[in-house]
Structures are given as C-alpha cells and as structure tokens.
Amino acid sequence: MKSVAWVTDSTCTVDPIYAKENHIYIVPLRLMIGEECYRETIDITADEFYEKMKTHEKVGSSQPPIGEFLELYENLKQNYDEIIAIHCSSELSGTMNTSLQAAEMAEIEVTSIDSKAGAFPLREMIMKGVQWHKMGQSVHEIKEKIEQMAHNVAFYVIPTSMQQLHRSGRVSGTQLLVSQLLRIHLLLKFDKGKVIVEDKIRTFKKTKQRMMDHLKSDIGRIKEVCIMHANNLDEAKEIEQEISIMDPALKTEIMTFIPVVGILAGEGTVALSWIRN
C-alpha cells in the first residue's frame, strides 16, 4: 500500500494527536487581534481567541503564507508516495490556491480536494479518508468519495454580527440596513462552497426553529449532528437538548467554532452541520 500524507489547514479541527498518528499535516491560518498576530491552534486556542475578542475591536484573519506550505511540501516529497491536499472552501478562502501554488513550486504532484466547507465537515472528510486509505482504497477512489461527502453536507449558521458579514461582502448594505431597522435574524447556509442567505426571520427563536426544521427533514439519513458555537456554550447545550427530544438516538457533538467564523459572524453565533448518508 502506498504511503499517503494529508495536507490541510487549521479550520479542519482535527485533534493534533490523531493528526500526528495518521500523517495529517495542519498548516495554521493567521489570526490578528489588535496589533498581534497568532498562528491558529498553535499560539492561541479558539476559546482564548474569543476571550481576547471581547476586549479588541480590531480582529481579523488571513490564509497561511505560501512559504509555510512550500517548506512542508519540500519535506513531504521525500517521505511519501502520494499527497492529498484538502482545505476549507475555496469560495471563502485563498488557502487552497496558495497550497497548490506551493506544491507546484516544490515540483510535487498532489491530489487536491475542495471540502466546500470547514470545521466539522472538513474534519469528517479527512477522518473518513484516512479510514478508506487503511482499507486499501486508492487516492483516486478516496477523492471521489470525499467529493460525494461534500455534496451531502448540510451546514446552517445563525450569525450575531451583521456588521462583520457586511464588511466581508457576504451581506449587502441594503440587507444590513433592513436587518437593523426590522431587527431581522439571518439563517445562512453553505451552498456549493459559498455562504448564502437562506432565510430572514424576525426573532432568534423562530430562526433557530427553522434551522431545526432543516435538521428534522434529514432525520433518518444521518447518524450525527455537530452543534457549533462562537463562545455561546449555553445556547449550544440548549440546542443539544432540543435535538435529543427530537431524536434520542441521534449522536450529537458540541464544538467551539473556528475563530474565523467568529470574526465574520460575531461572538455568540451558533450553527448546525451534518452529513447525509
């Protein structure tokens, strides 16, 4: 069986010990707080980031520098037969493009996969891919299966900060003004790698119910759902309780959102994600 290395980024939320044991190399995004720059998951945890975010207005993120990818690929090409590069959605970040440019500079062939998401779905794709490789499946077969997983991802987000979404270009000035005047809550979803407005609803309670309705429509086709939150554990636990009432057999996981989502959608943001069978 050919040896395979996995190259990804810190939006994947893969456990560092699992990554080390399974040849997964995680290149960190950069997080900016005030004048300080941190390597995500290395210099600062998600929880630490949200604590600092409370006292700083100036926060941001950027993709990893190309030199970091280049150095990694130069090392990997000496030790592995094949490399799979799987990153957060190319529609939302230039990380995938930077990774592939570095691979070209290192004169190494990689199999690239656009997860069209990040966080929980990206982690699940990588872990499934590792499992399939251990079963003897080829890189080509693994790529096809992961791309099918990406097609079956459901990912809904209720943001708390329209200002940040407006600055990032994901919400228009008109949508921002209307939401402020009418106190409208947005329900966002990932669609082919892009984040789009799924619905505009007057109250948070009804917005959350609409998100739960989407989950309910897929019950029977899923085994697990991930509840993500940007420093809003109480609301995440409440959602978990509601899901347990809806379907006691459905496995749930609560995850602190990757900081880049908190930057774009605001502290307090909650989300649900699952992958259909």
From TrEMBL:
Keywords: Lipid-binding. Pfam families: DegV (PF02645). InterPro entries: DegV, DegV_C, DegV_domain_contain. The keyword Oxidoreductase does not apply. The keyword 4Fe-4S does not apply. SUPFAM superfamilies: DAK1/DegV-like (SSF82549). This is DegV family protein with EDD domain.
